[in-house]
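To: structure subgroup
Subject: Chain for Friday's discussion

All,

I'm putting the inputs and outputs inline so they're searchable in the archive.
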Amino acid sequence: MSVRAEHRTDSVLNARDDARAQTGLSSEWMPYLPASTSPFVPDGVDPAGLTWAETVAPGGYTHKVLARGSRLRLDDPTGEACAHLLVYNALEPVERLNVADTLKIPWQAYLKAGTPLLSGDGRVLAGVAEDSSGRHDAFCGTTTEAWNAQKYGDARPEGPSPAGRSLFVKAAAKHGLTRRDLPPSVSFFQGVRVAADGALDWLGSAGPGTHVTLVAELPLLVLLANVAHPRDPRPDYTVGPLRVHAWRGEPTDPRAGATPEMHRAYLNTIDYAEARGL
């Protein structure tokens, strides 16, 4: 610490004055407060209705509790974001994303518009309402400390190549959850496909300017980690900024399910919500 900086905080009054002098400073990686001040409001969305607006740094994380019916929009402005997502029933976080059911119940291995994100209790936590990317993954989960340490030489959450698992641990702790409460996650904007021989092929991004919009079918606890995809073959830790916006809306009509399985899952969700007066 320089002598000058040390002098600014060498007493309580000086520390207070130094802190107040930072008023008005901002970073490109931060929540916009209030959310209506976001410089990146999605087209057609009333800024006054926003409940969450944030740009997540490359290698960063964020978290939020959203009301039932909320729209959650994720934007990839550079084509390098990778939004690793976990969702929980905010009322009872023991109910959480179940990736296996999310794939097998709709008979669909790939995330796209119309895909429900299901819990292990047969309810829809959230659904994919819009998708202009088409490059997503529900097979690989997120990166671990061991993987990043081996590939990049560093996996510290505060380091140059944080692992998604570490960031999820930090986000979960803000809501009283631990490492044991983290199930496998899904990710958006970096695609993976299963080859004929069973290999997992990384497709990368669809390019800059794509987005995904989710609908919260129950009150949601959302955890997001914006980190490099575990199948990314590039030797450098490559990830771009992630934009996040949310606003209030209505949950999906339970008749929207195109299959008997989907219809039942939405009915289970409605039954749970109505019993709690949501």
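Points worth raising on Friday:
The CA atoms of residues 61 and 167 lie 6 Å apart.
Residues 55-275 form one domain.

D.
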